[in-house]
Specification:
eight-stranded mixed β-sheet; five-stranded antiparallel β-sheet; globular; 18% strand; 23 helices; Cathepsin B, Chain A; 821 residues; alpha+beta
């Protein structure tokens, strides 16, 4: 007997026990056949993968079999339901999509020795050695690997209920000006607003808060007052209760806790114990601003009685806590033949090749494909009895999320993220693993179905010369041309009506929203139109001129992702969403935008080589903003250092230049004359500091492409603020223009496309779109709509149903399929 248990171990504190989900499938303890945890490796497998595990782990064939059932919890009618305080799912304070407070679990255990021996546990413990019993008890008692990871993620995830303690709590200055704050009847000291008011704890001033992205809120008087006085703390009137209030620290730029709030309020005659909450807290506002948005019910089709659908390709994905961005992207990608061919049809190949399945990218991607496409986890739930007591349909992609987010500053947290940014990052990961990992078919690389090549034609009217550049893209990013709105008159009338109602103190919540209606074709036309770039310095001539840039498709991808840049920032850096309704055609024809290449009669622009010995390489021939230069010099910095600061930060922002000076004044070449980039720019770029993913994500969250963000950061020496300023003032698509024209040797005009690009007609049909609810892509909620079998299907996390009214006009990302594939 002892021999068959020789490899059994007792898990220690450093062992991860995977007892929530199978390595290769989404079988779990609630599945029909439960989950089997190896008592040697502590990894769980479903019944269908027992043979595979034992084959790959010889001698390790003893398992603890867990079968879990749900039992109802009596509902106490006297207990008030927990209030939702955050627009999030699966995190504390958010929505409980699984109704976990209505049931508890009951588990049954067995010791299973593959292939055919079963011992009930603990009923038949007399048949087991002591080591096996200790191992089983330890596995049952251990925190699962998922739970450990959840705790780790929550440690780096912002939680709306946990705020830092302000540094001013013990040192806050409070003026003795004899001002006493009444318990009600407040009004802004600088305007007539009577809500969204903030009390400055230093001098007792009452001022209105920031204006929100949708036009509601205040007039920014509180923040303007801080910039004038530097008085740091303000409390929101109307949120004060005996338990606390909303306190904002302007110099810490965050909502904070003030342990001495009662004392600070008492200075102004406010007794916290007598205050009742009369205004909405910041958490309330976050919920309302997202929920009241007219698009929310439209995107989720909340007013329709949706008919659920089940079967292969109709599997929902449970929300793991702000993971809807990942769910939406995954549902769209695994609809495509390329991803199905690579990962679903070859899933057994990747399972068998994986030495460490938990940490194997291909194995976990194949597992995700199997979960979504097999139909095994998309079965109709019986309507008899309480549905919350039945095992949920859909999959819980915990292993996949953990792996794809590992070591990434954003996707490794439980915070909401930008779906477009995740899409691009995941496509890059797929491509990288296709290049380096063993594969069932080396020709299969799903990432290439999105790749296309663009041509940039640079024309200088002054010298009547051209240059052709190329760049690789995986997404077509389009601006939103508000000026092209088809109903501008109605929009202006709506805005005026709303403004008049607000002046009269009337509520505008019930006022029907009128959004600008903008055809997608207008956004495409704007992208394709010639773009003038002023104040461009000709490399050879050294003088300023205007050049004209146009961009065209060299190749058309099999699948074209279109991203609408609907998200931007207000001057005070608060998020702003362009609330528009796009006219989205089911078919688009881009054939007219095919690149023509170098044309007969054109003259190529010279390389613009400059020898290293010429003085023209110094700042003498580089224009510097003299006004800003003098301001920096007056601060005591060297002339050459100030020139360097301005050149490296876009030459138009004194604050960005100052930040650059503070970061680089200790550089050995700070006081030496600046040398313009020449052909050795490629070497210099290699020597520049590495760009971190967090900085890239900040800039991409404002709607810029990854290439644009990378170039902005490289030009500003990784100064995010300077990079953002440069990106905002440099047209998208021309980010590498100056550096390429000045530093790259002239390439012969391209006549043939590269072999690794797919190509075909420019006619496309819409097959999917991803919509976003919220004022910024890094918060709120994502939903996918996909056209399958001639009908539109909504994928809203674990809910999959027939779509009655696909909200194509409100989406963020669109996917078009080329007609010939």
């Amino acid at each position: 007997m002892a021999d068959k248990y020789k490899n059994v171990r007792v898990p220690g504190s450093n062992d991860n026990v995977y007892k929530d989900e199978c390595l290769y499938s989404f079988d779990n303890p609630e599945s029909e056949h439960g989950l089997y945890i190896c008592m040697s490796t502590f990894r769980g497998v479903g019944k269908d993968h027992l043979e595979r595990h034992c084959k790959m782990n010889p001698g390790k064939n003893v398992f603890l079999h867990i079968l879990r059932k749900r039992k109802p919890v009596p509902v106490d009618p006297n207990v008030e339901p927990v209030k939702v305080t955050k627009l999030a799912i699966g995190v504390e304070g958010g929505f409980d999509a699984n109704q976990s407070n209505r049931f508890t679990f009951e588990e049954q255990y067995e010791i299973y020795i593959h292939p055919n021996e079963t011992i009930h546990y603990p009923d038949e413990t007399n048949q087991l050695p002591e080591l096996v019993k200790r191992s089983a008890d330890a596995i049952i008692a251990a925190d699962s690997a998922f739970l450990k990871e959840e705790r780790s993620l929550m440690n780096v995830t912002w939680n709306g209920d946990i705020r830092p303690i302000t540094k001013h709590t013990a040192t806050l200055q409070q003026l003795n000006n004899n001002r006493q704050i009444p318990p009600n009847g407040w009004k802004c000291d600088q305007c007539d607003l009577k809500d969204n008011l903030w009390l400055n704890l230093t001098d007792g001033a009452i001022l209105c808060g920031r204006k929100f992205f949708d036009g509601t809120g205040g007039n920014n008087h509180a923040s303007e007052y801080y910039h004038k006085t530097k008085y740091p703390l303000a409390v929101k009137l109307g949120t004060i209760t005996a338990k606390g209030a909303d306190v904002y620290s302007y110099d810490e730029d965050d909502m904070v806790e003030d342990p001495n709030l009662a004392i600070h309020l008492g200075h102004w005659g406010i007794n916290m114990l007598k205050m009742e909450k009369s205004d909405r807290s910041m958490a309330d506002l976050e919920i309302e601003l997202n929920q009241k948005y007219g698009e929310a019910s439209m995107i989720e089709e909340a007013n329709s009685k949706l008919q659920p659908v089940y079967g292969p390709g109709y599997t929902g994905m449970r929300n793991l806590g702000n993971s809807c961005y990942m769910n939406s992207v995954a549902q769209v990608l695994f609809t495509l033949d390329d991803f199905q061919e690579k990962y679903y049809k070859n899933c057994n190949f990747y399972f068998d090749k994986a030495k460490d399945p938990v940490n194997d990218f291909n194995a976990q991607t194949a597992k995700l494909a199997f979960g979504l496409l097999s139909g095994q986890y998309s079965k109709e739930i019986s309507m008899s009895g309480d549905s919350s007591l039945q095992a949920p349909s859909g999959i819980r992609p915990q292993m996949f999320r953990s792996l794809i987010g590992r070591n990434h500053p954003d996707f490794g947290t439980k915070q909401q993220q930008d779906a477009a940014e995740f899409l691009q990052y995941y496509i890059e990961q797929v491509h990288n693993h296709c290049l380096k990992d063993s594969t069932a078919d080396p020709s299969l690389d799903p990432s290439t179905c999105f790749q296309f090549e663009l041509e940039e034609r640079i024309y200088c009217p002054e010298i009547n010369q051209v240059r052709y550049l190329t760049r690789n893209e995986t997404m077509l990013r389009l601006g939103v041309p508000i000026e092209a709105s088809k109903n501008m008159h109605e929009v202006l009338q709506f805005n005026k009506t709303k403004e008049d109602m607000e002046k009269e103190g009337k509520k505008t919540n019930d006022l029907p929203i009128v959004r600008p209606i903008i055809p997608l074709t207008e956004a495409i036309s704007q992208w394709a139109a010639p773009e003038d770039i002023v104040d461009y310095i000709l490399p050879r001539h050294g003088r300023r001129t205007t050049i004209r840039k146009t961009q065209r498709f060299i190749t058309y991808p099999d699948y074209l992702f279109v991203q609408l840049k609907k998200y931007t920032f207000n001057p005070d850096w608060t998020p702003k969403k362009l609330d528009v309704s796009m006219e989205i055609p089911d078919e688009i024809d881009l054939n007219s935008l095919r690149a023509t290449g170098f044309q007969h009669g054109e003259t190529l622009m010279p390389d613009g080589d400059i020898s290293t010995g010429q003085s023209s390489a110094s700042t003498s021939n580089i224009h510097v903003n003299e006004v800003l230069l003098q301001q920096l010099i007056d601060m005591g910095f060297s002339t050459e250092g100030c020139k360097r600061a301005l050149i490296n930060t876009g030459n138009n922002d004194i604050e960005a230049a100052m930040n650059w000076v503070f970061e680089h004044q200790s550089d050995p070449d700070f006081d030496t004359p600046y040398e313009a980039p020449m052909k050795r720019a490629r070497v210099e770029q290699v020597q520049s500091p590495p760009v971190d993913e967090e900085s890239i994500g900040i800039i991409m969250s404002m709607g810029f492409s990854r290439n644009h963000a990378l170039h902005a950061l490289s030009l500003s020496n990784n100064n995010v603020e300077a990079a953002v300023d440069w990106a905002l003032n440099t047209p998208e698509g021309s980010s590498a223009l100056a550096a390429l024209v000045e530093s790259s040797p002239q390439s012969p005009p391209l006549q043939q496309t590269k072999t690794h690009y797919r190509d075909g007609t420019g006619k496309y049909r819409l097959i999917a779109f991803i919509s976003h609810i919220g004022n910024h892509p890094s918060c709120g909620h994502y939903v996918a709509h996909i056209r399958k079998d001639g009908r539109w299907i909504i994928f809203n996390d674990e809910h999959v149903a027939l779509s009655e009214h696909p909200p194509k006009d409100l989406a963020y990302l669109y996917l078009y399929k080329r007609e010939t594939i």
